[in-house]
Specification:
Blueprint: H1 7-14, E1 21-25, E2 28-31, E3 51-56, H2 64-79, E4 84-87, H3 98-106, H4 110-114, E5 118-121, E6 145-149, E7 152-156, H5 164-176, E8 181-185, H6 201-213, E9 218-221, E10 227-230, E11 237-241, E12 258-262, E13 267-274, E14 277-284, E15 289-296
Parallel strand pairs: 3-4, 4-5, 7-8, 8-9, 9-11
Antiparallel strand pairs: 1-2, 1-12, 3-13, 6-7, 10-11, 10-12, 13-14, 14-15
Length: 312
């Protein structure tokens, strides 16, 4: 069941949230400034055969905050046993030697990898194309790929090089998919209210009509080193999470599109899909839950002509 708070209660809770957390009250987002952990998250059902996963973005620094996020992910997994992790790109910053791969990925996530958690990477602008051959990223040597878990199909895209071949592949893959939940993840956000980068409008023009036509439910991205959840756009849920290693402190400039945001610490998020509902929590490296909700799968017809001109 989706939690619905009356306005007076939302105001009370929002007034006691951590500094830097953005809440949408009425028609405009508000930056709250108090500092307690009074936020009440949704409860994961932990249903049998549900699809449980985590997401990280812009993580590969090899620095202390990345390790602290990884440690918090492992602690979260003790009560919420997710089985795989989606990576929003910029998986490895700087050089890509064997020692770099160990320091910026293998070591921080050693406990998760040892527990059998699989990572599925997408490529960001700081990544090298050769990362697609790095076995722990499970990309199968491809810049873009898809896989299915339960009643969800996941589509990893290379948003840095969105060439016609990739668009044709995506159109066919989405058209062929019979999964109720279609979730796309990639690096550059189609919507973002961060100051440093913001939305990629060209990419939005290319991808969003296809997402809408073929019934994509959720789009996950990184690139901006903040956390932001947008108001649904064209019936699609959009998340930006690019602060699992990097962070741009107080970089959000909330707009009417901003539903929730957090820009004062690193985060990751965990999700559970149960039937028509997607439960999630966004968690800081200190364990603070900064966003949480239950999202109902959009009811949109996923139909299109068999032949459609490619978007160039």
């Amino acid at each position: 069941m989706i939690k619905r708070w009356p306005v007076h209660k939302v105001t009370l809770v929002a007034a006691t949230l951590v500094s830097g957390l953005l809440w949408h009250l009425g028609n405009a987002p508000v930056v709250m400034s108090a500092a307690t952990d009074a936020f009440t998250p949704v409860t994961f059902p932990l249903a049998q055969d549900s699809t449980r996963f985590a997401i990280i973005g812009d993580s590969g620094t090899g620095q202390v905050p990345q390790r602290q996020v990884a440690d918090q992910m492992m602690r979260t997994r003790e009560t919420f046993p997710f089985t795989f992790v989606l990576m929003m790109g910029d998986n490895i910053y700087g050089s890509h030697g064997a020692d770099d791969m160990r320091r910026k990925f293998d070591d921080p996530y050693k406990a998760l990898l040892g527990a059998g958690v699989k990572f599925y990477a997408s490529l960001g602008n700081h990544d090298k194309p050769t990362e697609r051959f790095y076995a722990p990223f499970n990309m199968g040597g491809k810049r873009y790929y898809n896989f299915t878990r339960g009643n969800a199909e996941f589509f990893a895209l290379d948003s840095t090089y969105m060439d016609p071949a990739q668009l044709d592949w995506l159109r066919k893959s989405l058209s062929d998919s019979t999964s109720p939940w279609k979730i796309c993840f990639f690096h550059h956000p189609l919507y973002s209210n961060a100051r440093y980068h913001g939305p990629d409008l060209d990419l939005r023009q290319r991808l969003e009509p296809m997402f809408e036509t073929y019934g994509v439910s959720v789009v996950l991205a990184g690139h901006d080193h903040v956390y932001e959840r947008l108001q649904p756009q064209q019936g699609i849920y959009y998340f930006v999470l690019g602060n699992s290693g990097q962070l741009r402190f107080r970089n959000l400039r909330p707009s009417r599109q901003t539903l929730r945001g957090f820009d004062t610490d690193q985060t990751f998020a965990v999700f559970e899909i149960v039937g028509e509902n997607l439960y999630f929590q966004t968690v800081s490296r200190t364990g603070l839950i900064v966003d949480s909700d239950v999202l109902v799968r959009p009811r949109r017809a996923a139909s299109a002509p068999a032949l459609q001109s490619p978007v160039r």
